[in-house]
Amino acid sequence: MRSGWFEEATARSAVGREAWTVAWEATPLGPPSAWPESLRHAVRLCFSTRFPVMMVWGPDLTLIYNDGYRDMLGTDKHPAALGAPARVVWAEIWDDIGPLFDTVLTTGEPTLSHDMYLLMNRSGYAEETYFTFSYSPLSDDDGRVVGVLDIATETTREVVNQRRLAVLGEVHAALPATFTDLRSFALPVIGVLAASADVARVAVYAASGPEVVLESGGAPDQSELRLVVRALASGRRQVVPGMVVTPVRSGQGSGVIAALVLCGTEVRPWDADYARFMMVLSTTVAAALRDVVRRRVHDDALRLRAVHSEEERARATEVSLALQQAVLTDPPQIDDLEVVVHYQPAAVERDIGGDWYDAFTRRDGATTVVIGDVIGHDLDAAVAMGQIRSLVRAIGYDSQETPARVLERVDAAIDGLALGSSATATALVACVEQPAARGGDQARTVRWSSAGHLPPILVRADGTSEILRVRNDLLLGMDSGASRRDHAVDLRPGDTLLLYTDGLVERRDSGLRARLDQLAKVLEGSHGADLGTVVESALTGMLSATDDSTVDDDVAIVAVRAGTRPEAPGR
Q: Residue 34 and residue 83: Cα distance in Å, rounded?
């Protein structure tokens, strides 16, 4: 039986028009024409909005709902739910929502639930759903609570999407940055995925076999191994309803080292969103595994290269040391002129330096002492040091010219022999001439020329020290046409001349001028000590253990002391 008010209230609703066919007279509500005004008012309210609304009325809590609520019933519950008892329609979730109905009916107070989890069977399978809803009391004409109004919204998509985003973040955080083997890589990742409500099974297969390296969740179905084999062979991802199998490339060519299997849960429909999420998840893990494998291969190659480089460096150092030791010869023995030389390698492990010294007697009887330092710390520097030392020695011995002229000829030889930029060096050549026959004066003249080298220090026989500062000329090997200057100083009996390389005085944390002044102060009063002790004092005073600086350069020293020349017979 139709009722004019009912048809009018439901006419603009598809569900409302379906409600015309319900045998309401067979329900506890009876025919709509007999419904009380309070129920009619609630029905008009239900069908007047597009927002999802459901209401129940009477002792059986008979359902009435609008178009907006229709989708919440899935594919199986509508239209049978119209006019049916709520306990029957929602039997599978009644333990969850039944107490809420009882609360409203007995207290008359509304309820509010946020993102409530409900495992519904509304489309032929148990489905995970989430709802935000409020149950409000409905009263009859006498003011008694006899029904419940449900205003609801389904939040399943929002809750699931947020959960999936969180899982992606947790996977990113858990991905190992290094790789030793598949199991150690997979362990933290599977730990995260095993706790995900969207992953029912996860497995990592090694390409060899293939065999399972690590897995979690349910047992594999019959199609899993077949899809794994296909993914490993083709290098392409395999997607079937409920499962994604992603091959993991090695990052070296087209090789595949593993396959990742992700299976969906049965309580979520396998739709495009679900498939997309599982593909993004598997691609993230596969890409991370590929990258760490590639990084390990790269790091292994770097380690091998470093080992090879260290072996080459050790061989070069051995050759360099041999070259350097071959030229660091003992000084000549002269009756009235004492010469002491010293070489000390750097305190830190590094390539051999280009420091050198030399001392020889020219054909005219004058003694030449040399100190120098080739730029660089490698085999090239050691080779260049040997070449420059030989040039200085040969030209100085044969030409008997002043130190400035000797250095000019060495510059020309470096250019003419095309020794290259490696033959760039500081050097100081000093010639100790024979004493002049001038009465009882036994002073010698020391002539020297400096190619960018540190100034000599002269310790007088009375214990005072003096830094022989002069304007330096260019380094050797920079300009073959550069002119050079000679300088001269008297060397009297008991005086000591000290030549040295920068390893003795230069430090990163101190200025050079201050360090030179410090060396001069260390040498003050050393006139009474033997020449070997003077050298040791210089080393101890400048390179002592109390110095916080690191000694990271070689040190070469040449010390010359004038003795008293014996008187000629008959004088």
A: 15
